[in-house]
Amino acid sequence: MIGFLARKFWYGLLVIAGVVTVVFFLFNILPGDPARMMLGQRADISSIENINRELGRDKPMVVQFAMYVNDLSPLSFHDTENKASVWFADESRYGSMFTILPLGSKALMVKSPYLRRSYQTRQEVSEIIKDALPGTVILAIAALLFAAVAGIALGILAALYKNRIIDHLINVLAVFGMAVPSFFAGIIIAWLFGFVWADITGLNMTGSLYRIDPFDGMVLEVKNLLLPAFTLGIRPLSVIVQLTRSSMLDVLSQDYIRTAKAKGLSKQVVILRHALRNALNPVLTAVSGWFGSLLAGAVFIEYIFGWKGIGKVTVDSLETYDFPVVMGAVLIVSVFFVIINLIVDLLYGVLDPRIRVS
Amino acid sequence: MRHFRSLIEDASVLKKRKNSEVKDTKTGVFIIFTPSMKQLLSIRNLVTEFSSDGKTTRAVNAINLQLNKGETVGIVGESGSGKSVTSLSVMRLISAPAGKISSGEIIYHNREGADIDLVKLSEKEMMHYRGNEIAMIFQEPMTSLNPVFTCGYQVMEALQLHKKLDKKAARERTIELFKKVKLPRPEAIFDSYPHQVSGGQKQRVMIAMAMSCEPSVLIADEPTTALDVTVQATILDLMRQLQQENEMGILFITHDLGVIAELAQRVVVMYKGNIVEEGPVAEIFKNPKHPYTKGLLACRPPLTHKLKKLPTVADFMRQENGNLIETGESLEAVTIKFKVTEEELAARKTALYKKEPILKVENLATWFPIKKGVFSRTRDYVKAVDNVSFDVFPGETVGLVGESGCGKTTLGRTILRLIEPTSGKVWFNGSELTGLGASEMRAKRRDIQIIFQDPYSSLNPRMEVGAAIMEPMNVHGILANEKERKERVIELLKRVNLTPEHFNRYPHEFSGGQRQRICIARAIALQPKFIICDESVSALDVSVQAQVLNLLNELRDDFGFTYIFISHDLSVVKFMSDRMIVMNKGKIEEMGDPELIYKNPQSEYTRKLIAAIPKGM
């Protein structure tokens, strides 16, 4: 078990290292001058040079990459004496740092990963992400929870009533759900439930998880979650319905289901205990993949419902060539992907002992 | 109706008083009510039908059957004869809405002493009997247990449901049952998942599950078909023993009369939904009346003597316009007709061993590494094939026999280099196969073909049968153009007793035997010199098996093929082969003339294998 976790963790690190490399070189090949972006078109040459030196952009690409990795890595090398060095252990930049291995004027230190600062606002990228991430995570979890619960239930229903009216109805709904683009569905849903029937539903067209109240500060607004989560869940729901249906039909024709019936178990027990657990593996695969991509942000939904999330932040920063923010967002999302994959690998084993690791 | 019901109620009250008279209140006449105390299950005029696309087929056609306490009744027949449908009808497990019991009664004499018509019970009432008073064991132990629950849990479930035991008591009872069915380390098996135990052990778990609530009726649907002979023998023993303890009635369903003789007192022979013959086992074996029964008895490869070809059902009867026509041949006459004389055998042998061997296997070994740890380092090896050497002569059939896991399949695949050998050499027609490059090996594959075990999964379901047979010809560029190849395929189809119309059909439209013929046609399409038959008839009914074996022999004589015939069934291997190799744990136990090995086995393992074969009568 520990061996398995260690191996998975190692693979995860490799994936993240790959993402870091790709992201770094990709955004350094793209055109765009950060110094000009920060200072505007009329900045004088010396200011621009200063900024470039501070960012290390006067150094060769390989050194820049090393600096970037050093900034990201929790375990990093720093210069402890020369304040002018780009490798200087600057606590105002990295936060608190701990030396674990002093090497003369240099040291191996532990710190929290440093994602650099936004070109536009000079705000720390980690702060920007910390601000936007909870909204995205909660929205993704809510949407998928809704999609999974409703999708599995409808899928079972469709399988049990195969080729009858209920099955056909569910199928039509699922196809419709997959066909409707989310931006369209979002607008219609926001308009209907947040505006036309607002008096009945009591919901707003837009709004984030937190409302800034003039007196109370941040106020949690759970009801704002309903519409975006529902809209975002429609598509995964449709996929989960179809997957559950087909995998359930497959499982229901298995010999061990006949054995369970021959034991005298009731229909509910046969379906919920014996069949469902066997049918869930493909559903889990779909849900986990979807969860990962939802964490990257559901741009349209976030825009339509005015929801503060990572997708909106990413797109806004892309528009203004604010690369550190984009790079930070991409990295965070890939870390989440790796973690989710690890959890799902463990969950497979919980669901099906045949793929359980020894 | 009410009158009738009160009659029944009276009867049940009286029965408890051991009285056998019931007064009919309407007429005032005493009815002598003598339920045979032994009668358990009585099927009367049962009709079970399946409908699809508006067409209705009768799987079971008005059969009558009776099972008494402590009795074992065997139901024999080929796939599609309605034997399994009969058993599922009793369990009321016919899958709705396609199938349904259209008419008839299944009267069950329950524990309270009342007679109940199972057909009329509601689903809920039926649940009380299923697994409790009437239990069932299924054919495929591999797939009949739920892979996500432990073996123990699945047995416990039935106990908790019917016996209302709590968890602890159910666990104790389950472990007790596991001991009773002679599972090794019952506590460990209790917590094991089905994939962690062997096929024979799974079937023991299934038996424990079926026996858990001490049922009055046990239905066993081909419980040993998927198992090795030695395992089969122990399972049959176990069932016999359990029956004596509980006085159960057993309905034992199989396609193999040999197995029935080991266990049953009475036999029912089913053919196309009808019962064609019924009687005590000894009577059926000695004096079969119906031609189909004769065919079933004759088509099992005999152990005592060698036959030229196996008799099939067709030697005793044929169908014309839906009518059965008997050929009128007796069992003995057919058997004598097919017997091989000593001179014929000797002549064949001298002709065979004059030539140089076509295949030489030298010290072949295939080891599978067992990897462990973070860095997947190899800790140990499974020696599937361990230092095996033998020769095969042109035109010869070498039989390879052994239990599952003995390495016979790995050996066959290693010769073909479908699995790469760890060491050793394979000489085929003078060239050494293990040293060949990928493209040279591909060219050689033309000469060596393989026919796999499962005709259901070895054909691509989305490919027309004709195209499947043609594919290897396309790959190896045989014949000038598509048209010639197509003609060739039609020729091949005819050769394996199919018709040209079958060219454009898909595999699911064929029966198991027909599919295996298609696989054979595909294998011989390249005109190979050498064919490896890997358990090629194991998935087939005995009657179909005989036809396929005969076909393989005919093809060998016509085209001069050389076979390696791999099977777990010693009687089949003995019938097919000129020389026999007995394998155990990756090594050759014994090699030589099959008749000699059978009469005078040298190794302990061979002796055990032979002793386990059901001998019939």
Structural summary, described in words:
The complex is a heterodimer of chains A (358) and B (617). Chain A is mainly alpha-helical. Chain A has 15 helices and five strands. In chain A, the strands form two sheets. A three-stranded antiparallel β-sheet of chain A has the order 1-3-2. Chain A has a two-stranded antiparallel sheet with strand order 4-5. Chain B is α/β, with parallel strands linked by helices and 617 residues long. In chain B, the strands form six sheets. Chain B has a six-stranded mixed β-sheet with strand order 8-9-10-5-11-12, with helices on both faces. At the A-B interface, helix 1, helix 11 and helix 12 of A face helix 3 and helix 5 of B.
SSE blueprint and pairings:
The complex is a heterodimer of chains A (358) and B (617).
Chain A: H1 2-29, H2 34-39, H3 45-55, H4 61-72, E1 75-79, H5 91-94, E2 98-103, E3 106-110, H6 125-160, H7 165-179, H8 182-196, H9 198-201, E4 210-213, E5 217-220, H10 223-252, H11 255-262, H12 267-295, H13 299-304, H14 310-319, H15 323-351
Antiparallel strand pairs in A: 1-3, 2-3, 4-5
Helix pairs in contact in A: 1-4, 1-15, 6-7, 6-10, 6-12, 6-15, 7-10, 8-10, 10-12, 11-12, 12-15, 14-15
Chain B: H1 2-16, E1 21-23, E2 30-32, E3 39-52, E4 55-68, E5 72-76, H2 83-91, E6 99-109, E7 115-117, H3 123-129, E8 134-137, H4 141-144, H5 151-162, H6 167-180, H7 186-190, H8 199-211, E9 217-221, H9 229-246, E10 249-254, H10 257-263, E11 266-271, E12 274-280, H11 281-286, H12 291-298, E13 317-320, E14 323-326, H13 331-338, H14 342-354, E15 359-372, E16 377-392, E17 397-401, H15 408-415, E18 423-428, E19 431-432, H16 438-445, E20 448-451, H17 465-476, H18 482-495, H19 512-524, E21 530-534, H20 542-559, E22 562-567, H21 570-576, E23 579-584, E24 587-592, H22 594-599, H23 604-611
Parallel strand pairs in B: 5-10, 5-11, 8-9, 9-10, 17-22, 17-23, 20-21, 21-22
Antiparallel strand pairs in B: 1-2, 3-4, 3-6, 6-7, 11-12, 13-14, 15-16, 15-18, 18-19, 23-24
Helix pairs in contact in B: 5-6, 5-8, 6-8, 8-9, 17-18, 17-19, 18-19, 19-20
